[in-house]
Amino acid sequence: MEIELPKFLFHGSRVKNITQLRVSSNCHDSAHRDAVYLTESLNVASCYGTEIYTVELLGDPAFTLDVNGRLNPHMRFRVMEAMLSIDPDLDIDSLNAAKSADDIFEQVQTHFRQELQLNDTSLINHALLEHGIWMVFGYMHPMAVSGLQDRGIQYALLDVSKSNIISCNSYDSIWRRATDAERQKWRV
C-alpha cells in the first residue's frame, strides 16, 4: 500500500524569518520527541506561534512511517532493525507480534523504563533516522491529545533536508486568501 502524504504542511513558530527548519531537542512533552512538528491545519499551526510556515515535503513517502497503520514487511524490517540497534536485548517475538509501529514503540519505551531506567524516547527517532525513515506521522493515543493544539494528529519530521520552506505568513493573511473548502478543512 502506497503512502499518500500532503504535498504541503504548516509549521507554527514564534521565530521569524526561518529559512531552514531545525529539529528541536526540547520537545519533551511531544509525542515523538526530537522532531519538527508539522500539521495540515492552519488553526493547529497558529497554536505554536504567529509565524506560519508553509512547508513542502521532498522525501520519498515510502520511507515515512504511519505509526498507527499496519506495517508492511519492508517497513517492519526497518523499524525492527532500528529498535534492535538501540538495544539488542529487546524481546524480538513480542515486537514481531505488534500490529503497528506505535505498539512497537510502546514496548520499547516500556523496556527502556523498566530495564534501563531510561525515559528518553528521542533514541527511537535517532535510530529510525539512521535506518532511512525521515518522517513519522499518525494519531496519538487519546490520553496524549491536547485538544486544539494538535487535534491528535502529528507529522514529526526527523530529517529537515526532506523539506523546504515555501513561505511564511501570518495566520490572518493565509486565512484571508484561503478558499471556503480550505477553511473548512482547517477547522476539522
What descriptors fit this protein?
188 residues; alpha+beta; 2 domains; 7 strands
Would you spell out the secondary-structure blueprint of this structure?
Layout: E1 8-13, E2 36-38, H1 42-46, E3 51-57, E4 64-66, H2 73-86, H3 92-97, H4 101-115, H5 122-130, E5 135-139, E6 153-157, E7 163-170, H6 171-177, H7 180-187
Parallel strand pairs: 4-5
Antiparallel strand pairs: 1-3, 2-6, 3-7, 5-6
Helix pairs in contact: 2-4, 2-5
Protein name: RES domain protein
Describe this structure in words.
The chain is of the alpha+beta class. The chain has 2 domains: 8-59 and 134-181, no CATH class; 73-131. 34% of the residues lie in helices and 20% in strands. It is built from 7 helices and 7 strands; from the N terminus they run ββαββααααβββαα. It has a 4-stranded mixed sheet, with no helix packed on it. α2 (73-86) runs parallel beside α4 (101-115) and α2 packs across α5. The longest helix is centred in the middle third of the chain and has 15 residues, at 101-115. The chain is elongated, with a radius of gyration of 17 Å. The two termini are 26 Å apart. The mean pLDDT is 81.
CA-to-CA gap between the ends? 26 Å
Across the major sheet, the strand order is 2-6-5-4
What is the subunit organization of this protein?
A: single chain
Structural class: alpha+beta
Order of helices and strands: EEHEEHHHHEEEHH
Rg for CA atoms: 17 Å
- SS summary, helix count: 7
Average predicted local confidence, pLDDT? 81
What count of domains describes the coordinates? Answer: 2
Poorly predicted sequence stretches spanning 5 or more consecutive residues: none
Estimate the strand proportion: 15-25%
Shape: elongated
How is the main sheet built? Answer: 4 strands, mixed
Give the total of beta strands: 7
Helix content: 25-40%
